[in-house]
Specification:
single chain; 375 residues; 11 helices; FAD; oxidoreductase activity
């Protein structure tokens, strides 16, 4: 159940998303080759500014640093509405992930320096965790070696979500016998960024570190003991993108259901065929399970529940399976038109396949949930 303020936020987000960033806004980010338009930043900067003005960037930022501290359940409502129209923005990577990292592990100075900018949208942060095609935080190879009073970082991070527009990243590095997180500014000497083309027209980046020097004040949390902090950040990221996937799956289902109710074939509305009714009923059931898992995980963050790790992986895995199934069925049930770029179905499928891999794949989170529950 939503309280009055959350319901108002959801209604406002729903109306703004439909009017300002419909699916056609995403289509404009695509080039003729199927990926993003050359030179694109992967989102509409004007729309991002409007999101900031509405206060969405500061939903999980404490009031002391200029945010509203409205909670993760509230942030999930906004992300779900953005997912409905596949609206591209750095809200997840910056307003949720980077803000969470600073909340959980930042010093007072780091919070004072970066959180107000995240809250008003003037600063974009992100997380640099993955180093290849497969999510494997236990195999981090980027190194940070002590140098004078600070550190020098060497290695590559890819993909870094919204990495071409971010002003800083929380970078996970191998130090001694453990992992340490560093706050690294994007313009640091020795750091280069390369845009990566992606099927959903968003623009992640590869960040290459060549003797990138950082001061000891750049450490987030404790040296060699960053793995637990990284897990906590990733849990919140996984739940956030699960909320977005829930929105995408919901809209894909509703669009498909409308088509089944109106498309006439062999002299009958195709939705009258029992086989298709069974398919729709199965998808509806899966959607309700995903909603329950996502909402429970968002609440667990707000309540600081010890069950969060398991609930986060459960939400990411179920939302990933659901959006995979519904986006595939959306293409198939629309027939030939669903295969065209002009129809929305293919765009939902492409975004679903990317989101399924972000912050840990469906299989990775399913395996983690099993381990956490003793299987």
């Amino acid at each position: 159940m939503l309280n009055e303020e959350q319901q108002m936020l959801k209604d406002m987000a729903s109306e703004w998303v439909r009017d300002r960033v419909p699916v056609t806004a995403l289509r404009s980010l695509y080039g003729h080759g199927g990926g993003g338009v050359e030179g694109s930043i992967g989102h509409d900067a004007a729309a991002w500014a409007e999101m900031a003005q509405m206060g969405w960037c500061g939903i999980v930022v404490p009031e002391k640093q200029g945010g509203s501290d409205f909670g993760y359940r509230s942030m999930g409502l906004v992300l779900e509405e953005l997912g409905r129209t596949l609206a591209a923005s750095p809200l997840l990577s910056s307003g949720l992930v980077a803000a969470s990292a600073l909340r959980l592990g930042g010093t007072d100075e780091q919070k004072a320096r970066w959180l107000p900018g995240i809250a008003d949208g003037s600063v974009i942060g992100t997380l640099a965790m993955d180093e290849g095609a497969h999510h494997a935080p236990e195999k981090i190879r980027l190194t940070a070696e002590a140098s004078g009073s600070g550190w020098k970082l060497n290695g590559v991070k890819r993909p870094v979500q919204d990495g071409m527009v971010a002003q800083f990243a929380i970078v996970a590095a191998r130090t001694g016998d453990g992992v340490t997180l560093f706050l690294v500014e994007a313009d640091a000497p020795g750091l280069t960024r390369e845009p990566l083309d992606q099927v959903d027209a968003r623009v992640p980046a590869a960040w290459s570190f060549a003797d990138v020097a950082v001061e000891p004040e750049a450490v987030l949390g404790q040296v060699d003991k960053g793995a637990e902090l990284l897990d906590a950040i990733r849990d919140r990221a996984a739940v956030g993108i699960a909320a977005e996937m829930l929105g995408s799956a919901t809209q894909a289902f509703e669009t498909t259901l409308d088509y089944l109710k109106t498309r006439v074939q062999f002299g009958a509305v195709i939705g009258s065929f029992q086989a298709l009714q069974h398919r729709a009923a199965e998808l509806f059931g899966e959607l309700q399970l995903a909603r329950s898992a996502v909402e429970e995980a968002l609440t667990a963050i707000d309540e600081d529940s010890p069950a969060l790790p398991g609930l986060a992986s459960l939400a990411k895995a179920i939302a990933g399976e659901t959006v995979h199934q519904i986006s595939s069925q959306m293409v198939q049930l629309h027939g030939g038109i669903g295969m065209t770029h002009e129809h929305d179905a293919g765009l939902y499928l492409k975004r679903a396949r990317v989101a399924e891999q972000c912050y840990g794949s469906t299989a990775w989170h399913r395996e983690r949930w099993a381990r956490l529950n003793g299987y």
